[in-house]
Write a structure and sequence with these properties.
alpha/beta, elongated
């Protein structure tokens, strides 16, 4: 039998070489393996666990160390925009900075007439975090669509839509805009596409490399998916419609050179150029 305090201490020490917050990660994994609340763990640090429960905890610690799996994959969930999302290794883990994309989308939808029933599309939805958060927080009527090329990703996204009370989102397995006939135009299109150059793979943290390649890497120095969406989007946006897309912070100059004044660049909370906006005239 091992006391909770001692388990946390050992877990934190084991994670010290792979985590910037080893004690916090150990706490999260202890919550996961014991099903005990953080309040209980802090209130009863001298309580002991069975050897079976202790083994479950140290198994998670070892997977975090040896496989460099992110916490979200070990716990199977991630918070995004104050909502809980299921995640598996079939999907990209939602990042806090992407919440700004949802905020920008909600700001745009708030400018539409109150009687409008906007059509919204999320390209490359992954876990469904963007479209689910947008649908959850948009109080009006509308038609919400999301696409992905991977059946496994769509399975996770559909579950997240149901779990978060947005079952009316239509998910489609298709690349880019291929599922939509000409004339089916949207008020708002959003995307967090892959935008990492394969040549920079060696510079990525090991944890990132456990995520699906298809969600990370793009050809043409990371710009293939961004360029394709930018070129196709005007044909699928209504007049006055808007495209919002996440990009790499080092891609602004290349995109400005190619698309010029069509694009507006948006900085994240740390001042990095992270998003682009294109309005269809």
């Amino acid at each position: 039998m091992i006391a909770l305090r001692e388990m946390l201490r050992r877990g934190g020490e084991l994670l010290r070489d792979v985590s910037e917050a080893p004690e916090l990660e150990a706490l999260v994994l202890l919550e996961e393996s014991t099903s005990l609340s953080r309040t209980h763990l802090f209130a009863h640090p001298e309580s002991s666990l069975t050897e079976e429960r202790a083994a479950e905890f140290f198994t998670l610690i070892e997977r975090r160390r040896r496989e460099r799996l992110p916490l979200a994959y070990l716990t199977g969930r991630r918070e995004f925009f104050s909502l809980q999302f299921s995640v598996t290794r079939d999907v990209f883990i939602p990042r806090p900075e992407t919440e700004l994309l949802v905020e920008e989308g909600l700001d745009y939808l708030s400018t539409l007439p109150s009687q409008a029933s906007p059509r919204v599309l999320d390209i490359g939805t992954g876990s469904g975090a963007i479209i689910v958060a947008l649908r959850k927080h948009y109080t009006g009527r509308g038609l919400f669509f999301a696409t992905d090329i991977a059946r496994e990703s769509l399975s996770v996204a559909r579950k997240n839509a149901i779990d978060n009370g947005t079952p009316d989102i239509l998910f489609l397995q298709t690349p880019f805009f291929d599922a939509f006939a000409p004339g089916k135009r949207f008020d708002l299109i959003l995307s967090n596409p892959p935008y990492i150059d394969r040549g920079g793979e060696s510079l990525l943290p090991p944890e990132v490399l456990t995520e699906p390649d298809r969600a990370l890497f793009s050809a043409e120095r990371g710009l293939y998916h961004i360029r394709k969406i930018l070129r196709l989007a005007p044909g699928y946006l209504k007049p006055g419609g808007r495209l919002l897309m996440e990009t790499g912070e080092d891609q602004r100059s290349a995109l400005e050179e190619e698309f010029g004044t069509e694009l507006t660049f948006i900085q994240d909370l740390s001042g990095k150029t992270r998003f682009i906006r294109m309005d269809h005239r």
